[in-house]
Amino acid sequence: MATTLTLKELSKKEDLLTHGHRMCSGCGAPIVVKQLLLASDYPIVAANATGCLEVSTCISQYTAWKIPWIHNAFENAAATLSGVETMYRALKKQGKLDKEIKFVAFGGDGGTYDIGFQSLSGAAERGHDMLYVCYDNGAYMNTGIQRSSATPIGADTTTCPAGSVIKGKTQPRKNLTRIMAAHGIPYVAQASPSHWKDAITKFKKALDIKGPKFIDVISPCNRGWRSRTDDAILLSRLAVETCYWPLYEVEQGFTKITVVPKEKKPIEEFLKPQGRFKHMFAPGNEWLLKLAQEEVDREWERLRKEAGSE
Amino acid sequence: MGKVVAVTGNEAVANALRQVNPDVCAAYPITPATDIMQRFTSFVSNGMVDTEMILVESEHSAMSACVGASAAGGRVITATSSQGLALMWEILFIASGSRMPIIMPVVNRALSAPLNIHGDHSDTMGARDSGWIQLYSENAQDAYDNTIQAFRIAEHLDIRLPVMVCLDGFIISHSIERIEYMEDEPVKKFVGEYKQVYPLLDVEHPVSYGPLILPDLYMEYKRAQHEVMTKASKVVLDVASDFEKISGRRYGLFESYRLDDADIALVILNSAAGTAKDVVDEFREKGIKAGLLKPRLFRPFPYGEVADALKSAKAVCVMDRADSFGGFGPLYMEIASAFMMNGNKPALINKIYGLGGRDFLPEHAETVLNELNDIVKGGKVKTHKEYIGVRE
Amino acid sequence: MKLKGWKDLPPGAVVTEAGSAAEFKTGSWRSFRPVWLAENCIQCLFCWMYCPDMSIKVKDGKRGEYDYDYCKGCGICALECPGKKGKKAIVMEEEGK
Ligand code: SF4
Ligand code: SF4
Questions:
Q1: CA neighbours within 13 Å on the CB side: how many for B138?
Q2: Does pTM top 0.95 for this prediction?
Q3: Is the CB of residue A63 less than 8 Å away from at least one CB of chain B?
Q4: Which of A8, A225, A302, B165 has the fewest CB atoms within 10 Å, counting from its CB?
Q5: If you classify domain B255-387 with CATH, what class do you get?
Q6: Which residues of A touch C49 (CB under 8 A)?
Q7: Domain boundaries, position C68
């Protein structure tokens, strides 16, 4: 039943990720988690890859989680959750459990695009009934801002520092959402915390679909992006409006753009407030900006074609 | 009470797993353990067990899924060998540190490089510090019996630790032996209902598994883990005594073979112990007081009991089917530590044998026993550590 | 929370008290403090939705006061607040001033 989502109604729900967690001030990830938890009408059991979210939400004898939660290692959130979900099916089959439970894995881009990719791909292929949510801040932030395969082209990180010869990351980011769609799983999407209604709708939809689901959510990190602590929502909104982070879903193989920006803003608007792209605005480096724009344009055009919205 | 069958070690282990009927099994193929899981999945496909399979894409994911499934709250198994165990390495520590009673038969096989699929103990010896309980098996009967007992040991409420059941690749895993199976019912009764501890699937009582622990608390967790290991030997013996009641077969922490008055002794694990025992008998017939100790429980290692069992020996050779390069063989180091504990100082030598499936022959045992005999007769220890059965 | 000795720890480092992080007050991290001007508030609840620290109390769908025990002072709520007729309902003030 589609009830309209209102903040008023949502605000009556309990916070299942409690305050007192130790994520940095202004981090995007807890907002992503909060929106996911608000979306569910069922109990959730979560797995978490090692990373910022994991170390900051369950530390010492303090846990910020009010749902069952498991952290195993960095690269295996999907495999771990596949074990949990399989035990759930086993016990249900034996009549030892009857509750309807939803299973969600959280991982950063390092734990999802890179080291955890095999585990994620395997779990997706095996068809486990679970939703994997990647909070994508585009680098290894927990270890101090090293490049990952999700780092955008040109970005200055501690392992691809912008120098006089090499100007930050030289490769474009890997398009994991497309790769996950290519697994042929029932639901894949991209979301942004700025567009909370779109995000929560996608989370809800994903949780209602049986089988493996993957949602990639942009998650600003003011430390790594070298931006202000108050602009997580502003930047994630700009990511959508510049079409750097298109909001779309691939349901049963069919692609739909869920939010079409009224006007496509130039990529500079997303890059400019972030210190990691500062060198791209230096005289002589205009080609880098051009490259970044071309990258966005190409993917946006491709996506529009795929969605039949040309 | 049981029924005598002619089966391979792998078949015996698979049958034990069928009789236990675990809730979840994660599996990934690797020679020579593959066969255990092939047989087990055919039990699943034919409705002979209730187990849900997770056919993972790597051993790393196999152990990761086992951790998830075990936390969820049920009986969990997997099996592996060699490179597979090495790939699991990271998660082995998480399984034990999180106190998860996962059962894993490990078919011992050499580690690469160079690539070799045959038996030696370098894989499980490499995992000896992982916090798992390790049981070693001389033959298919041991492997079958150890597998069944492993569940009771692992799931004991004072223990809650994962257990590896080790058996030699090919020599045991693939050779047909006559062994005795128990009936299904007594096995099920022996193993009992699984008791959940902090099940993740209890959504009414949400718990968090796997916190970040800082220096102010990490050591307390490790101290607690150490404490559990100190209790394991007793549980292993209690379980063995219950097992004897239903099987008639007796197990201890190790096997003492003609050790009571022995002057010279071999310490040797798994299948090679069978060969060596025959040679010990020959020496006894010649009037030489030879004996043998075959460890069963390697982790935790029963130092005091082992030293006590070897107390009459004047010269001891520890035979290792694995090397710690730049050190002694791993079994040797334990035996040396055991002697330090009771102040007993026999001459102690170390032989490395049988790597990568190299045959262990009676003449190897004979040469070593002769060397020990010479040492006792006043000769000196020539080499403390030496490879045997190797071409110059 | 008093740190436990090894004999009192739950096996396997499991944390059994869900939501115990609430005992850890993060409000001291703040260098700027958001101040709510109720008269400019249109009750859109964007601030509540976007607060990463669950530090804005909402009761029966109505925005209430800040929970300064936890608010880290990031300023997201202030930036996202639409306010009334161009007048923000949240302003950031430096702590200790
Ligand atoms: S300043 Fe940041 S932490 Fe404090 S209430 Fe506003 S959004 Fe939440
Ligand atoms: S965002 Fe501003 S206007 Fe909206 S509820 Fe919060 S304080 Fe009121």
A1: 16
A2: yes
A3: yes
A4: A302
A5: alpha beta
A6: 7, 10, 31, 34-35, 196
A7: 26-94
